[in-house]
Amino acid sequence: MEMQLPPHEGDELSVVDMHTGGEPLRIILGGYPEVKGDSVLSKRRYVREHLDHLRRVLMYEPRGHYDMYGALIVDSEIPEADLGVLFMHNEGYSTMCGHAVIALGRFAVDYKLVKETKSPETQVNIHCPCGLVMAFVEYSDGKTGGVRFLSVPAFAFATDVKVSVEGFGDVTVDISYGGAFYAFVNAQRFGLDVTKSRTRDLVDAASAVTNAVKAQVKLHHPTSDDLAFLYGTILTDGKDDYSSDPTANVCVFAEAQVDRSPTGSGVTARVALQYHKGLIQLNQTRTFQSGATGSQFTGKAVEETKCGDFKAVVVEVAGRAFYTGVSRFVQEPDDELTRGFLLK
């Protein structure tokens, strides 16, 4: 039987689904109205204020789920960018997403969004809300493979910050930026293990830290107030000293959403933090493992730089993304749940 669209009203929403280290990415190809704005950051504000119902349609059930993640390709105001992108999730819109950049790099080459392909790597310039990110896609005999990317300047914002966390008392955290701000804390502080403890317990502890930091620590970013918010908390195994062995973490971001991958922007922020503390040197590669799935990224600081008054580094993160399917979503006017819902 030939596939065809069922009865519906309005435009169809077409997507390509991928995953990076187990973390989903729903890339939106068509069905969105024009996204207005003269910059990627202003486009981010526009979709939040005018098109947020479509985020809920695609991220929420019945078409998505609580932990769905999405990417909307938009035009960039930067001439050297191959594409601009807006990231979305269960709460709203993030400023950076490493797992999505890895997937989008491969997607951009496969879907011919770059002017020219080269072997052994094809460069893809992706304009994220946090800035221009350069991805490098393995390319040979017409096939794409692994992807590495160079981050925007990443820096340690504050270390050894004491916050009062409901249910846990005083907790000492580090805060670091890797395209988004994260709080970092050893899971052992809560009697937890990022690879063995129940996901619910990890989420509860991380969410409590996130709420405390948001209430008690004022963040700022040198280039834009739009970037000055805490995206989530990353619980680690505490193995921050340089080692050839993997170090594991679990990221809980947005509205208690759990990253299945090691978290690309989180790896970026964690490398910047380790470099700031003198625990790693330039070009020392570390392997970062997801406590949720066991999937792995590598990360290393490759260059010192500045971000305003902050001493910063450019971080290279590498991983692999895979296709899982394509979909054409529709809406029926008498469907009371068509705009989406979440089970919490």
Automatic annotation (TrEMBL):
SUPFAM superfamilies, sorted: Diaminopimelate epimerase-like
Pfam families: Pro_racemase
Reaction catalysed by this enzyme: trans-3-hydroxy-L-proline = 1-pyrroline-2-carboxylate + H2O
Sorted UniProt keywords: Lyase
EC number: 4.2.1.77
MF term (GO), any: trans-L-3-hydroxyproline dehydratase activity
Record has Lyase as a keyword: yes
Family assignment from sequence similarity: Belongs to the proline racemase family.
SUBUNIT field: Homodimer.
Name of the protein: trans-L-3-hydroxyproline dehydratase
Organism from which the protein derives: Seriola lalandi dorsalis
